[in-house]
Amino acid sequence: MEMPVVRVTRGPSKYLDIWDLPDEEEIELELNSEHQPVDDGARTFTGFLGTIARKPHMCPIRYLNWKVMPEENKEECWRLVERKYCVPVDPIAYAALKRFALQKIGKAWRDHKSRLKKQHYIPDSRNKARVKSNVPTGCISQDWDILVDHWYTDDAVIESEKNKERRSKQDDVHTAGSCSFAVHAAKKAKTDGCPVERSVLYPILHTRKNGSIVNPVVAAKIDKMKELLADPANHLQSSDTTGSIAWALDDVFAKVMGKERKGRIRGATLATMEDKLADFDEMKEKLASFDEMKEKLSQFEEMEQRMARMLQQMQHISSQCNQDIPLAQQSPALQKSSAASYQPSSL
User: Fold this and answer.
1) Using CB atoms within 10 A of its CB, is residue 259 exposed (0-12), middle (13-18) or buried (19+)?
2) How far is CA 200 from CA 41, 148, 151, 222, in A?
3) How far apart are CA 250 and CA 234, in angstroms?
4) How much is the average pLDDT of 205-219?
């Protein structure tokens, strides 16, 4: 009997060159106007964030979703990024890159848990003990127990079935791979020397390497977009060639795909208004902390000046007292010393 071919994979990249980077070195990161990585190092940056997401102590798998991951864990992840990469000084750019990085880490963390389930989960609650006993390498056993317990709850089983049904109905599947939309947009902008809007990027993100479009439904949408783009009046007016994706509520993409729903803008890697408000709140918090630190420093300097004046006054009073004390009242040792130091010039 012929044995089936077993595909050997190398597993996820570990990016040890970044982890082992000396503390005095930082990696430069080119950003677009939305403060997202877009150059050749963007893919490496995203891959490195994935290794952070798989660190069991930094991003424990015990939590059900990224929103309930403790803030101190997220801050630890970001501090690590700051040690390895040169982050912007500008507060707005800093907050945007931080948001981007934590979103990528969150997605990589969800993907990591999804892979664990695909590799280890066995349907039917009778297999739970067996799954628990098979703790994957790199997982903390207590966290693994919590995650496996969740997989076998009624709510998790029902939600899993719903997700499978939703995925089966999806026809808008992109081929961007591990590169972000912004990276693909930046490459297109450099090639064409002009801004990239959603309807121009859409065919690139839904075409396979062999030139075929992912499915007939997407092909029909692409044809409609190309038809509308044939009219120059339908083109957006933009001069941004950094890799940011141009869009408008009534652009060609919206005319073909329909109106935007509440949340993220489809076909673009832009921050939502909620993200920007969160960034603004974080900036205000940092500024408030800075103002508080300045206030404390000012108080300390004032206290230091007050102590210096008191010391000066004490020294002045002490000097004045020494001048007012008669010689007879001074210490005998001082008088003796003064007498002993006197020597007649001749007998």
Assistant:
1) exposed
2) 24, 43, 41, 9
3) 9
4) 93
